[in-house]
Write a structure and sequence with these properties.
The chain is α/β, with parallel strands linked by helices. It is 48% helix and 15% strand. The protein has 13 helices and 10 strands. The strands form 2 sheets. It has an 8-stranded parallel barrel, surrounded by 9 helices. Strands 6-7 form a two-stranded antiparallel ribbon. Helix 3 packs parallel to helix 5. The longest helix is centred in the C-terminal third of the chain and has 24 residues. The chain starts with a helix and ends in a 6-residue tail after the last helix. 50% of the residues are buried.
């Protein structure tokens, strides 16, 4: 049997992964959020796992379909398997924004322990139908499933949202019951990318979140598009030749408030991209003679690691929760 076939028949337990169900139940019971951290390469993966090891935090490693293509499926799974052996903490491997049943199926079959089906751009009944089909297939293999109701604006890898559609609290119970999914991503004013809020006065729709939490009091809710876009990272990038203007993220205090209202998984991607870029730009500016990638990639890794530790402690509240 070819290596490709072996990888694509892998069970996540054999890789040392766990699914997200126990993680999210514990987070919901103890009032913290499990971090959902996206990665695209080895240095990002190392930084996340080292930070979570040092802060004793569980973590959901997230891979978009675009990242899966970029790294290559066999390399990706081998990389994750090796990293888990190196850093022994509870880790789930999660497909972020799976666009259709086939992508979710492929990830279940190749060893992912969790998948997200994002049919939020479809009419309600079609979203239910697709999400339920994914849940049925995934659950037969012990894989947990996240779905989305409502839509976020912004660019997330291969998915482009042109307009925000807030989640209707009246729909959530029916959606969860009819799909059988394990967690639900909702839209309350976050967005993808580094340009999330138009002004510092903007706030998340906590009124919508409160209604949803009341309707689903013991059900895991997920917040996408929740990077804070730290001003120091944007300033660092611009200082060393970048040109990022008007970037604004979700204030930390709003994220903390959200996790105190049943949000028990918070996704972060853009912040790590900013940290990586800031680390590389500064390293090359300070060491113009350097041409060894290990010099500037190590700097980028360290920048992400410190940011990740700060988020576990001050945003997620997940530090010390293993």
């Amino acid at each position: 049997m070819a290596i490709y076939d072996i990888v694509n028949l892998m069970k996540y337990e054999e890789l040392g992964l766990v699914n997200t169900q126990e993680m999210l139940r514990d987070a919901l019971a103890r009032g913290y959020a499990v971090p959902g951290y996206n990665f695209n390469n080895l240095e990002q993966l190392q930084a996340i796992l080292i930070a979570c090891l040092e802060t004793e935090s569980p973590v959901i490693l997230q891979v978009s379909n675009g990242a899966r293509k970029y790294v290559g499926t066999n390399i990706l799974m081998s990389m994750v398997a090796g990293a888990i052996k190196e850093y022994r903490i509870p880790v789930a491997l999660h497909l972020d924004h799976g666009a259709d049943f086939q992508i979710c199926k492929d990830c279940c079959d190749m060893g992912f322990s969790s998948v997200m089906i994002d049919a939020s751009d479809k009419p309600f009944d079609e979203n239910v139908e697709i999400s339920a089909r994914v849940a049925e297939y995934a659950h037969a293999r012990g894989v947990s499933v996240e779905a989305e109701l409502g839509a976020l604006e912004g660019i997330e890898d291969e998915k482009v949202g042109t307009q925000t559609h807030y989640t209707n609290p009246a729909d959530v119970v029916r959606f969860v019951e009819q799909t059988g999914v394990d967690s639900l991503a909702i839209s309350i004013g976050t967005s993808h990318g580094a340009y999330k809020m138009k002004s510092p006065a903007d706030t998340l729709r906590f009124d919508i979140l409160e209604e949803i939490a009341d309707a689903l009091p013991h059900f895991p809710l997920v917040l996408h598009g929740a990077s804070s876009v730290p001003e120091n990272l944007v300033a660092e990038i611009n200082k060393y030749g970048g040109d990022i203007k008007g970037a604004r993220g979700i204030p930390v205090q709003q994220l903390v408030r959200a996790r105190q209202m049943n949000i028990c998984k918070i996704n972060v991607d853009s912040d790590f991209r900013l940290a990586f870029t800031a680390g590389v730009r500064r390293a090359l500016a300070e060491h113009p003679e350097a041409f060894d990638p290990r010099v500037y990639l190590s700097a980028a890794r360290d920048m992400i690691k410190e940011l990740c530790k700060d988020k576990n402690i001050n945003v997620m509240g997940s530090a010390g929760k293993i």
